[in-house]
Amino acid sequence: MALHIQTKQESAELGKRLFAGECTFFAGSNALENLPIESLPEIAFAGRSNVGKSSLINALTRQSALARISKTPGRTRQINFFDLSNKLILVDLPGYGYAKASKSKISGWTQLVHTYLKGRPTLHRICLLIDARHGIKPSDETLMATLDQAAVVYQIILTKIDKVSHQEIETKKNEISLLLNLHPAGHPEIIETSSRNFSGIPKLRASLAALAAPDQVS
Ligand code: GTP
Ligand code: MG
Questions:
Q1: Could you report the per-residue pLDDT of 56-87, keeping only the tens digit for each?
Q2: What CATH homologous superfamily does 12-216 map to?
């Protein structure tokens, strides 16, 4: 049988179709005991507080109020699961690195997030969001090291690129690429996005659609 290699246009079309489907919240977990049963492939959105995780899920699904967004960091306080047309599960995580929440809350969330990310067999990809203005911070490196050890693949997604110049984006990408060489579970491709002007969103949709089993994208 001849192998069909998907063209860029085909994968973009697949991504567009998948993310045009209905997306609904179906579970929120604040402890490992109440995580939903593993089923469809999951894509988790991780990163520091305020980096734009919830906004990115809303931009991908074109639903402005699906995942809650706030000007106040620390808004997402539990692991939220969204079902995308019964084909893929999008997972919005609480952010880490927010100093104003109580210490016990921060360590509770961080532990929950790390444990979920390390031990979820249906987790197909972690999108590790990095603010294009700030680059990778020590708290991101801690998570990267944990994921390297657990051999769980993560992909760096730059956020808020509408706030920086092309030159700054290139500089940040080069810095991150060098760092990724030291992290075995880091996916080499960095995707740059803006949830405000939607740049990079079609590319990310295409990349994530490829992770759903072929028979699940119709
Ligand atoms: P936590 O749930 O606290 O961890 O935050 P989060 O990572 O989910 O961030 P959220 O999506 O709530 O966004 C935080 C702030 O950044 C909000 O004020 C958003 O409007 C803003 N924001 C998110 N994405 C973008 C973007 O692409 N461009 C710009 N300019 N602002 C953005
Ligand atoms: Mg959030």
A1: 999 999 987 787 766 565 567 789 999 999 99
A2: P-loop containing nucleotide triphosphate hydrolases (3.40.50.300)
